Each structure stands twice: as structure tokens, then as C-alpha cells.
Amino acid sequence: MENSISYINTSGNFTKSDSNSSVLISLFNQHRQFYQSYQPVFTDGSKSLNHVGCAFFTNGHIISYKLHSLTSVFSSEIMAVYFALKYIDVHEIRKFILYTDSMSLLESLRSSSTRNPLIKEVKDFYRHLLSKGARILFLWVPSHVGITGNELADKSEKSATEFLTRPIVYADARSVVNQWCRYQWQEKWNMETNNKLHVTKPVLSHWVTKLNTRCDVVLTRLRIGHTRLTHKCLLFAESPSTCSHYGDILTVKHILTDCVAVK
């Protein structure tokens, strides 16, 4: 059986950023008229500073769960879909459409190369439902435009209190560890005020690396202020070079940004 899941986008070429909410709602209502024999299931997941949750809404029922604090937004979206499918299986619904506002989730479900274990669980359960004769459709809906089911799922997952005991995936744990390491690194870097590079790069981030070796060498020397013009005095045991205009010690920073004469 195929390893990917296709999805529908009723908004077509209309986007949330350049379309009136009433247009998007009208398109959704037209879609529901066409698929009225399919039971709608709305899912959502989110993460805030103190809360991670997922929820789904179908047939007047709202089910929501509070998730582990290390769970990512993406994983919470997947969990909402997974538990919606479990609910549907128990209630033996045979025709339904699952709605989500997470395009990245739908793209991952459609991909045949994803390694995310939660995506694999959803795909496995999807195939299980198909083997039982279920007809399943997935559809993307824009968030916060007034689609009732989507709004209810969104509010419910943010207020979920029933904690779900479930191991977090490796990718989520790795992301949190990386964030912690970057935070600790930045804290230590903040103390290195005498470091030559600190004034140029007070906030740690990736440098541009798509340069040839020669450009990298030149750029690195400029960043740390170590050039032939400004540091030849050290090689020949001379006094530091000074600006011919104002007498300040000659530095890369002075030449590029401070010296009024070269502005």
C-alpha cells in the first residue's frame, strides 16, 4: 500500500495574507456542501511558554490533552491527528475528513522519506483504517479566519488539563538540548567583553560560509581586527599605527566606522 497521504486545499490560489476571511469561509462552506457525507474532524496543537497541548473536535465532541513540556509544536499537531484517528477507529466512522491548519504536517504525511516516528505512527494507523474500509481525506484550512470547528479545536488544546503520559521523540529532545546549549554559550560569551570578536558579534549566530578560502581569511581578519595595516607594529616591535587625521590608534573599526575623514 502507498506510503504517502495526499491532501486537499480548498483555498486554491487564495492565501490568508491577501484574502478576506469571508472569502476563505465561503470556499470552505462550498467544500463542506460537496463533502457533506463525510464527517468533519478538526485537529490542532500548540505550544506556549507554560503549556503544550493538542485537541480535536468532531460531531459535537471536544477531546484535548496536555502534553510534555518538551514537545514541539509540530509534534503536538501530529499527536492531535493521531488521537483523532484513534477516536474515529473506536467509533467506527467510515467516511470522514480530517482538517488541520498545519501545512508542514500535511507535507510530512505526503512525503515518503520522513523519518519522524510520530508521522510513521499516523501513516500506519491510516493504513489500518483503510484496511477496515474507511474512506479518509485530509484537508488544510487557514487558521483564525472564523471556521468554527478549527476555532473550537484551537481553544480546547490551549486549555487542556488531562496530561498525556507519552515519551517525547528524539528530535524534540535534541531541539531543547540545542537551545539550552546555545543559551549557555551566549551567557558565557556575554562575559567575554575583552575578546576582539565580541564587539563585532555580540550575539552568537552562524556566519556566512559560502565563500572561497581567500574571502574567508580576509573577512575573519577584519572581524577580529587583525590586519597587516593595524598590526604590523607587533611584527617589527614598533609603536601602534595612528590615524593621520585625528591621531587615534588605527583599528579596523576606526577605519570602517569611526573615522569622520573617510565617511
UniProtKB/TrEMBL annotation:
* TM region(s), chain numbering: none
In terms of domain of life, where is this protein from?
Eukaryota
Show the coiled coil region(s). Answer: none
One MF term in the entry's GO annotations: nucleic acid binding
Q: Which family does it belong to?
A: Belongs to the RNase H family.
- The RNase H type-1 domain is annotated at 35-162
The stretch of residues making up the signal peptide is: none
**Which BP terms from GO are recorded?**
DNA replication, removal of RNA primer
Q: Which InterPro entries match?
A: RNase_H, RNaseH-like_sf, RNaseH_domain, RNaseH_sf
**Protein name, per record:** RNase H type-1 domain-containing protein
| Species per Swiss-Prot/TrEMBL record | Araneus ventricosus (Orbweaver spider)
